[in-house]
């Protein structure tokens, strides 16, 4: 009887050891992704420098090159995750994926002045968006990345004025206003997402203050009246 009980618990230990090995392999794969993500972030931070606005096309191109590496690294990560157990291990790559959604969104906005689609971010990462296909880009991770974008753009609006560029704040104001309206259409049940959305109104207020300051100082670029956010 005692041998039977021991055998049962030994089998438990084998299972625990096997799961620990999987988690360690996932952690190593995620660590490589995090390192590349830090490199992309460092590249994009150049836009906040005094002459950074002039380097936006070059910076965005370099960012996209790094996303090619990210795609390969996600392929390796996918190979480490057992089939059907995506959400069991999701916490390991949740934050870095949100960070990469933000970096992809920032790259596309700076380059094309539009909101990046979830499908496009998934393509940059080399994953799908369909949950039933296994390893995918979780919707909450994508939305979290967009909210991080709003925070970064509010900072960029301020630094653009410091650099003597008054057009970017006008465009950012319109974009963040539209993002805010879009998020208000969603019934956010994720606590973390709701908290990040609560911060969006402060990002919007920060940008609006920049635009207002430009307006009263007579520095608003001509022809940008249509970029002014409509109140109400």
TrEMBL record:
Q: Which Pfam families match?
A: Translin
Q: Where does Mg(2+) bind?
A: 152
What is known about what this protein does? Answer: Exhibits both single-stranded and double-stranded endoribonuclease activity. May act as an activator of RNA-induced silencing complex (RISC) by facilitating endonucleolytic cleavage of the siRNA passenger strand. DNA-binding protein that specifically recognizes consensus sequences at the breakpoint junctions in chromosomal translocations, mostly involving immunoglobulin (Ig)/T-cell receptor gene segments. Seems to recognize single-stranded DNA ends generated by staggered breaks occurring at recombination hot spots.
Alphabetically ordered keywords of this record = Cytoplasm, DNA-binding, Endonuclease, Hydrolase, Magnesium, Metal-binding, Nuclease, Nucleus, RNA-binding
The answer on whether this UniProt entry bears the keyword Metal-binding reads yes
Question: According to the lineage, what is the superkingdom?
Answer: Eukaryota
Gene3D superfamilies in alphabetical order: Translin, domain 1, Translin, domain 2
In alphabetical order, the GO MF annotations are: endonuclease activity; hydrolase activity; metal ion binding; RNA binding; sequence-specific DNA binding; single-stranded DNA binding
Offer a single GO CC term for the protein. Answer: cytoplasm
Q: How does it assemble?
A: Ring-shaped heterooctamer of six TSN and two TSNAX subunits, DNA/RNA binding occurs inside the ring.
State the signal peptide span. none
Q: What is its main location?
A: cytoplasm
Q: Which residues cross the membrane?
A: none
Q: Which family does it belong to?
A: Belongs to the translin family.
Q: What name does this protein carry? A: Translin
Where it sits in the cell: the answer is: Cytoplasm; Nucleus
What is one process in the GO biological process aspect for this record? RNA metabolic process
């Amino acid at each position: 009887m005692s041998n039977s009980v021991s055998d049962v618990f030994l089998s438990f230990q084998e299972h625990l050891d096997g799961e620990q090995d999987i988690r360690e392999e996932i952690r190593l794969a995620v660590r490589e992704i995090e390192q590349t993500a830090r490199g992309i972030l460092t590249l994009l931070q150049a836009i906040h420098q005094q002459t950074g606005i002039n380097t936006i096309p070059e910076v965005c191109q370099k960012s996209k090159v790094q996303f090619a590496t990210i795609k390969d690294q996600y392929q390796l990560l996918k190979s480490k995750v057992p089939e059907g157990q995506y959400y069991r291990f999701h916490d390991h790559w949740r934050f870095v994926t949100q960070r990469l959604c933000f970096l992809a969104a920032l790259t596309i906005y700076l380059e094309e002045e539009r909101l990046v689609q979830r499908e496009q971010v998934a393509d940059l990462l080399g994953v799908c968006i369909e949950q039933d296909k296994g390893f995918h880009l979780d919707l909450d991770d994508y939305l979290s990345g967009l909210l991080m974008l709003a925070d970064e753009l509010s900072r960029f609006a301020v630094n653009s004025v410091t650099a003597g560029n008054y057009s970017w704040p006008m465009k950012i104001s319109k974009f963040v206003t539209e993002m805010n309206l879009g998020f208000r259409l969603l019934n956010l049940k994720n606590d973390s997402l709701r908290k990040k959305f609560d911060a969006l109104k402060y990002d919007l207020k920060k940008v609006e203050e920049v635009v207002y300051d430009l307006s009263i100082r007579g520095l608003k670029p001509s022809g940008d009246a249509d970029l002014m956010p409509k109140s109400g």
